[in-house]
Amino acid sequence: MKLLSPLTAGALHLPNRILMAPLTRCRADADHVPTALMAEYYAQRASSGLIITEATMVIEGNSSFWMEPGIYSEAQVAGWRGVTDAVHAKGGQIVLQIWHGGRACHPLLNGGAQPVAPSAIPIVGDEVHTPEGKKPYVTPRELRDDEIPGIVAGFKKAAENAKAAGFDGVEVHGANGYLLDEFLRDGANKRRGPYGGPIENRARLMLEVVDAVIGVWGADRVGLRISPLNSYNSMIDSDPVGITRYIAEQASARGLAFLHVMRSDFLQTQSGDVMTHARKHFVGVLVGNMGYTAEEAEQAIEDGKLDAVAFGTGFLANPDLPARIAAKAALNAPDPATFYSPGPKGYTDYPAMVV
After folding, report:
1. Which of 234, 235, 259, 344 could pair with 123 as two cysteines, CB 3.0-4.6 Å apart?
2. Exposed, middle or buried by CB within 10 Å (0-12, 13-18, 19+), for 15?
3. What tens digit of pLDDT does each residue of 27-47 get?
4. How many Å apart are CA 199 and CA 270, to the nearest integer?
5. Quick one: pLDDT band at residue 21, thresholds 50, 70, 90?
6. Residue 116: half-sphere exposure toward Cβ, Cα within 13 Å
7. Residue 253, φ and ψ in degrees, nearest 5
8. Element housing 325 (H / E)
9. Which of 272, 279, 327, 281 is nearest to 301 (CA)?
10. Distance in angstroms (rounded) separating the CA atoms of residues 118 and 202
11. Tell me, what's the pLDDT at 259?
């Protein structure tokens, strides 16, 4: 199978093309420190061609999920070192997805601080989990231009901390309605000046972050994730193909290890073909994500449409997913009720295939 064949992505030499997609699981401790349970979870999935971790906070005070991990403190670096050591001991490779929640953050998760965003436009039609239960999102504060270098510096420091924690690289999270994606898409970015207006300006923050991270790791150990069609977190853009093309060209020019594209919309309100344009304009390893079966993934790689596929809930419920795909074995069904709950249930207790 093409899915089971090796792949070189920049400096990363992957044993197969079945990647583990980033999956927020909310199992860090109250100080956003990764735990031994998280190390067990990721190590169970070390047969992935590459593990991409859950979204990880680059700057303190920007929590969107209550118990998600961070990478800004010494304790968090040490906690992640436990994870990377466990994955490497099983022969796996793992990159850290670095992230800023932007307007998806909430004051109840961040000591009362108002979230920040490109424009003062709130997320609507959804609520966020907080210590006081589910609450509506609040209207964010528009970032000033002179505050933006501090955001870039936060990502750079996170990249340095990821290296100290023993990761094999990083993925910049530019998707799903969080800060970098909010700047990129014109439905959330209504600002004027150097970070608003045409696509070249709206993409500026994302690319400044990518360049800062490249300065730490080198382009051949950096990936970027985008979601041009995803309407999650009240997102929309007037030209999703156009932003796909522009980001693909910019990522290609920088020689990134991979470009990770979410091909569709969680909420199925927006549609279109962005993968064809990503393939055309990105010269490098293209990773597809969202709803691929093993059969479709195999065919897409065979046809040259993609180089690898990142599986989300398939890996969540099947720690040995590559072996199951190779054997054409039945898959465990994921339990959505335990996606974000504490403890091992629905996290580390999914059984491996009986051989």
Report:
1. 234
2. middle
3. 999 999 999 999 999 999 999
4. 20
5. very high
6. 13
7. -60, -30
8. helix 321-327
9. 279
10. 9
11. 98
The active-site residue, picked from 42, 137, 178, 292, is 178
List of residues 6+ apart from 13 with CB closer than 8 A: 6, 7
Terminal-to-terminal C-alpha distance of the chain: 20
CA dihedral sign of residues 203, 204, 206, 211: positive
Report the pLDDT value the prediction gives residue 217, as an integer from 0 to 100.
98
Residue entry with tokens 């156009």: 242
The C-alpha angle with vertex 280 and arms to 260 and 238, in degrees rounded to 5, equals 70
Q: Are 315 and 352 in contact (CB under 8 A)?
A: no
> Residue 49 in contact with residue 14, Cβ under 8 Å?
yes
Which tens digit of pLDDT belongs to each residue from 81-117?
A: 999 999 999 999 999 999 999 999 999 999 999 999 9
**Among candidates 70, 58, 52, which has minimal Cα distance to 159?**
58
Burial zone of 315 (CB within 10 Å; 0-12 exposed, 13-18 middle, 19+ buried): buried
Distance CA 12, CA 14 (A): 6
Quote the tokens at residue 318: 């099947």
Evaluate whether 301 touches 17 at the Cβ level (below 8 Å).
yes
Residues in the chain: 355
Q: Which pLDDT value is given to residue 129?
A: 87
178 among known catalytic residues? yes
DSSP string covering 334-345, please? P-GGGSS-SSST
Q: Give the domains, in start order, of the chain with CATH numbers.
A: 2-338 (3.20.20.70)
Q: Report which of 242, 229, 223, 230 is spatially closest to residue 281, judged by C-alpha positions.
A: 242
DSSP string, 42-76: HHHTTTSS-EEEEEEESSTT--SSSS--BSSSHHH
**260-288, pLDDT tens digit by residue?**
999 999 898 899 999 999 999 999 999 99
